[in-house]
Amino acid sequence: MVQELNKTVIVAGGAQNLGAHLAKRLGEEGYNVVVFDKQGDQAEAVAGEIASQLSIKTAGYAVDVTDESAIETAMTDVNQRFGSIDLLVYNAGVARSTKITEFTLSDWELSLDVNLTGYFLCAKHASMYMIKQKSGSIIQINSKSGKVGSKHNSGYSASKFGGVGLTQSLALDLAEHNVRVNSIMPGNLLHSPMFQSLIPSYAKKLGVEDSEVEQIYIDKVPLKRGCSYDDVANAVIFYASDAASYMTGQSINVTGGQVMH
Known about the structure:
GO terms for molecular function: sorbitol-6-phosphate 2-dehydrogenase activity. By secondary structure, this protein is α/β, with parallel strands linked by helices.
């Protein structure tokens, strides 16, 4: 039996993969779970699956995180239906891997729109309700590529570095309202569809076969394994909790020691 918190989390980009895992784990912690995703049907399916397993309230919304009016409308509805917006987890993201000389403007703009502007828009509108409540937490799922540059990933890395600055700025804006803002910086989620989709381009830049890529990335990690969905979820749950009440504006590495600053 799940202990209800009487708190509501919005997971933006929560309809699949890591986002869906985070939504379920937060539901297990007792949050009422709202899933925002461009794939509205899948968002509703994830919410429905969580509700069928746990005694919490859930909902799924079709939301394009680059559309401010859609975000504003959905946030208003969530607050009316659930009574509060206590936690925002911004997980929406895209990655395109190409050398700078072939990196298209459209891929650059997509990276910034989804990874950075979407975070800004969702945080902006969630914070309006958190300010009224005088409490709340915002957590961005960032990347180790927001701490160190990444070869053939200029758009992704630039957008993630921007996320670190945005997190610090939001934390300063919202501290007086008892709203905390942090970023989680995962290492390589080797078994995620996003990483798997990039293997051919990574093999090309490394000059190796596709089958060799995963081991090369494992060898870069002092703890000798990739990052898992649970590794990320454990950090999110801690930084959303009262145990982290004195922590804001932080960019927390979950990289197995690969990045230490």
